C-alpha cells in the first residue's frame, strides 16, 4: 500500500491511496480532566486541532474561572502534537513550566488555570467509501480521480474539519464547497460565499468582519460581515490565496479564537462558523516566497481535496454534456458520437465551466436536435471569433505588440489602443450573429447581460430595441 502523504504536507488529516482505495488518517484528540472544576469529564474531538477555553465556541469548554475564553490550542503537525498558548491571562503549563509553544507528548499533562488535562491522541485509518453515483455532491462524472474526490468530500462533509479545495479555475470548487455544507450538520444554517479575488483590498476586512457606523469615510451605518452572516453555518472563502498579506493574521486570529471584531468596535463577538477555502494557487510555494502565511495555511488545510482538471478525465465529457443539456432544459437535444469526439479534441483550459458555456452556445446557435462535430467546433471557436488584426500580428504562435504610440504613453492608454479595436470588432460580429438580441448575445459570449450592455455602450454599439 502506498503510504506516502499527499504532495501538500500542510494538511493535518492525511489522505492515503492504495490498492484498496483511498483512506483517511483521521486524528481524534481525547482529553480527560484529572483535576479542577470539571474533574472526571472527558472530550473526544475529531480533527488535527483542538481549542481549549471557557467560551462556548471552544472544542473543550471548561468552567474553571481561571481559564481564558480561548486559552490554548493543541495541533497535530508533521506527526507531532504541539500546544500553543492563545495569549491567555493565567498561562498554559506543561510539567510546571509555562509555555508559549511546546511539544505535547501522548499521555502528557496540561495545566490551564486550576485544571489538569490528560492528553491521549489517537490516529485511525478510515476507508473512504466510494460512491457509485456520478452526480454525488453535484460533481458529474465517473472517472477514478473524480470518484475519489467525491468520496473524500462525503467523508469530510459529515465532520467538522476545515477544508481547502484546490484545483484549476472552472473545476467546480464552488460546487464542492456547497456539497460540503449540504452534507454537514450545519446544512440548515447559512452558506455564505466571499470571493477574496473580487473585493478591493481596502474593503476585504470590512467584508469579512463587518464595521460599525462611522468606522471609516462612507460608513453611514453598521454592517454585518461574512463571519457574522455565516454564524451557525459555513463560510466559503473562494480564492483565499488573493487575501492581502496584511489581513492574513486577522483572519488567522478569527479562525483560531472563533471570535471577530467589527471595524470601529472595541469588543469581540463569538462566531460559530465552519470555514471552507478554495484556491487555484500553489499556496505552499507562496509560503516559501512570503506571499502567504504558513500558520494560516496550516489552519485552513485541515484536509485538502484536489479537484481534477477536465483534460485529465475526458471519459466524463458525455455525462457532463447530458447534465448541462438537462439543466438548460434542452433534454430533447443530443450530441452524436463525432460531436463527443470533437469535444475530446479540445484541451479545456477553462475546465467544466468552459464546457458548460460551449453547451449553452451549441443550444443557442444550432437548430438541429442532433449536434454534430461541426456544431461543436463552431461553438468552441465562437468564444474568440475575431482573428488578430494588423495591429496584432501573429508571429511564431504568439502576439507581437505593435510599437506605435507615443514614447510617454501610459500603460492604461497602451492597453486601450491595443484592446479597443479588437473589442469593437468582436462585439459587432457578436451582434450580427445574435440578430441584436442582448440575451442571446450574452449566452453566446458567456458573459452577464449587464456586463455586455456596458461594453456595447462603451463602443457606441446598439442592441435590438434601442435607437
List the helices and strands and how they pair.
Elements (H helix, E strand, L loop, with lengths): L13 E3 L6 E13 L6 E5 L2 E5 L6 E2 L10 E6 L2 E6 L6 E3 L2 E3 L1 E3 L5 E4 L2 E13 L16 H14 L5 E4 L6 H10 L8 E5 L8 H6 L16 H4 L4 E5 L9 H10 L1 E2 L8 E2 L3 E6 L3 H7 L4 H7 L2 E4 L10 H11 L6 E2 L1 H9 L5 H15 L4 E2 L1 H9 L12 E2 L2 E2 L11 H24 L3 H8 L3 H10 L9
Parallel strand pairs: 4-5, 13-18, 13-19, 14-15, 15-18, 20-21
Antiparallel strand pairs: 1-2, 2-3, 2-12, 4-6, 6-7, 7-10, 8-9, 8-11, 11-12, 16-17, 22-23
Can you walk through the features of this model?
- The protein has 467 residues and is α/β, with parallel strands linked by helices.
- Helix content is 31%, strand content 22%.
- It contains 14 helices and 23 strands.
- α8 packs across α10 and α12 crosses α13.
- The radius of gyration is 27 Å and the shape is globular.
- The termini are far apart.
Total DSSP E strands: 23
Helix share, percent: 25-40%
Shape: globular
Instruction: Please identify the structural class as seen in this structure.
Output: alpha/beta
**Number of helices, where a helix is a run of at least 4 consecutive DSSP H or I residues:** 14
- Bin the strand percentage: 15-25%
* Radius of gyration using CA atoms only: 27 Å
Biggest β-sheet description? 7 strands, antiparallel
Key phrases:
single chain, alpha/beta, 467 residues, five-stranded mixed beta sheet, globular
In short:
Helices cover 31% and strands 22% of the residues. The protein has 467 residues and is an alpha/beta fold.
